């Protein structure tokens, strides 16, 4: 059962990181292995979304209910698809230097073959996905203010 957690300080505001992660419909534009996303409904703080993930010869779709607690937390509740279970949570904690992000994912595929295929590369794949969100933040919000000041001094 692959599990991964990461705590990382990023030089963006919590509301910026929250909005970026909450924008599920745009995931295929920047997230590795996300080949499709459709938000079925978005009512209040809850949205239901279908994601399609592709890696190698595998392509799987699943449905999740996403609870948005702006700007502190995003919790993903798995509803339907190839998993036995999926637990995913993002926390965005204000810090004088930006945002401390706590990310957690834990899942198990129903298929033994899929479980073995992803198991070997899981940690690296998730690290790349988290890095893709940070790259997206730079694309959307620009270079962090601290980095801009340092560039001016050089």
UniProtKB/TrEMBL annotation:
CDD domains reported in the protein's UniProt record: COQ10p_like
Domain Coenzyme Q-binding protein COQ10 START: 10-133
Protein's GO biological process: cellular respiration
Superkingdom of the source species: Bacteria
Entry-linked InterPro entries: COQ10-like, COQ10_START, START-like_dom_sf
One Pfam family it belongs to: Polyketide_cyc
MF term (GO), any: ubiquinone binding
Family: Belongs to the ribosome association toxin RatA family.
Protein's recorded name: Coenzyme Q-binding protein COQ10
Source organism of this protein record: Acidiphilium rubrum
């Amino acid at each position: 059962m692959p599990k991964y957690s990461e705590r990382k300080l990023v030089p963006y505001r919590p509301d910026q990181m929250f909005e970026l992660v909450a924008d599920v419909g745009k995931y295929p534009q920047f997230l590795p292995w996300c080949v499709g996303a459709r938000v079925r409904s978005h009512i209040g703080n809850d949205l239901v979304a279908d994601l399609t993930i592709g890696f190698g010869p595998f392509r799987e779709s699943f449905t999740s209910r996403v609870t948005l607690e702006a700007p502190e937390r995003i919790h993903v509740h798995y509803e339907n698809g190839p998993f036995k279970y999926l637990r995913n949570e993002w926390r965005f904690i204000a810090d004088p230097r930006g945002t401390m992000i706590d990310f957690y994912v834990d899942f198990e595929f129903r298929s033994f073959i899929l479980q073995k295929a992803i198991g070997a590369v899981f940690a690296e794949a998730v690290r790349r996905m988290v890095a893709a969100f940070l790259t997206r933040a730079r694309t959307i919000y620009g270079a962090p203010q601290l980095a801009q000041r340092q560039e001016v001094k050089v």
